[in-house]
Amino acid sequence: MLPFKKIGAGRAAIGFAALLLLSGLFTLLLSQNIQPGGAPNNGNVAAADSGAGGAGTPPGVVTIEQYNPLAVSNAQFRVGGMNFDRRFAGNGWGEFLDVVFTLENLTAQDRDLYVFVAAYQETDAVDDRQRQWVPYPRWRPRDFERESHLVHHIAISPADIAEEKIWSEQDPDFQRQQTILNRMRNSVAGNIPIEAFRPPFWKYEQYMMKHPNEGLRITLYGETSPGPDKALITNWIPPTQEELRNRVHKTLIQHKYTVDATRRQTVFRSHHFSRFRPNYSFFNRAAILIFDAKEADASIQQQQRGPQPGEPIIDPLVYKRVYAFNTPLRNN
Q1: Distance between CA 2 and CA 114 in Å, rounded?
Q2: Strand, coil or helix: what is 223?
């Protein structure tokens, strides 16, 4: 009987230890308080809100609920001839993505437009190096890290938009991405430097919606043709004599757009520079937003004075497309 009692006591001790382990794991999961998006709260109420428009969202912060992912088109003009060209910069500092498309006026009247074109590199929050060491659990059906959108690099035509205009440290989305960044930097495979993330593109888009007049203003001509001084719009800065002697065109990276206008048709070329850097990667997304200039000016006036009771909100957006490159672009 004595050996039997010892065996029974050992089993009881093992069972008690397993119960304590399960209880500890359950307590740990509760303390993490995983929110939609997969980031642990860690006691940060604002971060837990994740910019979802809840009570912890600061006033004026753009949230994901305000983003409309649907494409927009217009019956009065046609966008076609879409082409994406990847090429080396002539100064050897990096590469360019040229986004080329045509605007065809389907009416006889001239139309003024504001145009934004953005190229950016976007990934999810999955750290492939870490998951080689710690695989994702098969029993968890939803992988929140694959639902995050991290922008690593962005270049906008006609001009880049400063990050401080898009978000701040009080933005819950900024705090959530900082949590993701710290997790990647402190992971078991964190031996490669990781740069800070840019704001998600939908925040840039909402900024363009509120400030459409910061786009490049062009005229889409109808039955009339542009004069010689208006047929070409570009911010190209030719190299100086010193740059020609040294064979380094420093202002080349500032070239953002080239627009050729003719009767009924305009060819729009935007140029997006990606500088060579450690862990280099090229753009894998491009977006085009076009606003009606008259409606855009009226929309800004409405925002400044505030809409009157019963007055509809003016929406100047007339075209929007977002393109994803499923395979890397080949350099020509």
Answers
A1: 90
A2: coil
